[in-house]
Amino acid sequence: MRTDTLVKQEGLNALISCLGYVDAERFIVLMNKEPFDYTKWREIYLDDGLNIRELIKKAQENSKNCR
């Protein structure tokens, strides 16, 4: 199991890789400005009917859009 520090570092690296430094920082600021409800976010942005294989495929397709 990864440590919290490692998860935070990898998450930050993923944001920077996909968005670049400036937009990664903007994303973090935007997320901190408003209360964040993960359950509501998940309902809006994730398709609930996906099985694990479909979810992995969707994640792989989205990762191709990263820089």
Concise synopsis of the structure shown:
By secondary structure, this protein is mainly alpha-helical. It has helices at residues 4-33, 38-45, 52-63.
Structural account:
- It contains three helices and no strands.
- By secondary structure, it is an all-alpha fold.
- The protein has one domain (4-63).
- The longest helix has 30 residues, at 4-33.
- The model has no long low-confidence stretch (mean pLDDT 83).
Question: Mind sketching the topology for me?
Answer:
Layout: H1 4-33, H2 38-45, H3 52-63
State the share of residues found in helices, binned by percent.
Answer: over 70%
Rg over CA atoms, rounded to whole Å, is: 14 Å
**β-strand number:** 0
Any idea how many domains? 1
Uncertain ranges: none
Mean pLDDT rating: 83
N-to-C order of helices and strands: HHH
Feature tags:
mainly alpha; single chain; 67 residues
